[in-house]
Amino acid sequence: MEKWKTDKIIQDIELKGWSYQQDFVDRHTLESLSDLFYQEFSPARVGKNQLLQREESIRGDWVYWIDPLDPPSSLKFATDFLNHLKEGLNQAFFFGLRDFECHLAKYPPGTFYKKHLDRFEQDSSRGFTFIFYLHSDWTEADGGELVLYDKDGRILETIIPRPGSFMCFLPGEFPHEVKISHKERWSLTGWIHTKNLY
Ligand code: OGA
Ligand code: MN
Question: Mutation test of ligand 1: which of 118, 157, 178, 183 has the most ligand atoms closer than 8 Å to its C-beta?
Answer without folding.
Answer: 178
